[in-house]
Specification:
The structure is a single chain. The protein is an alpha+beta fold. It is built from 2 helices and 6 strands; from the N terminus they run E-E-E-E-E-H-E-H. The chain has a 3-stranded antiparallel beta sheet with strand order 1-2-4, with no helix packed on it. The two termini are 22 Å apart.
Length: 101
């Protein structure tokens, strides 16, 4: 999932902070080339708004650009344009152990 803050100009009033999350597909088996799991965008762009306290971990997503990188992409939209996205297990020790045990 990819999270971002809700707009500050929202008329909604909540007693706790919320996060906007985008859901991705289930993990595939690690690729032989880079030994990382991959995910892809869920068709229909599945999103949910959740309390920040319900988020347990973040993850490091790396776009798979293919043979050429579109130079117009930015950090905000690069995941939207890639069909395959790597999930890095090298972010921290806990994540590495989770994926490699």
């Amino acid at each position: 999932m990819r999270s971002s803050d809700l707009p500050a100009d929202s008329d909604l009033d909540f007693p706790h902070p919320l996060a906007y999350e985008e859901w991705f597909s289930h993990f595939t088996q690690p690729t032989s080339r880079v030994d990382m799991y991959t995910v892809s965008m869920v068709s229909g762009h599945s999103v949910v708004i959740v309390p920040v306290q319900s988020i347990r971990r973040s993850c490091h997503l790396i776009p798979h650009f293919g043979k050429r990188i579109n130079r117009t992409l930015t950090t905000e939209d690069s995941l939207d344009w890639c069909r395959k996205i790597y999930v890095s297990d090298f972010v921290d020790l806990y994540t590495y152990q989770f994926f490699n045990d």
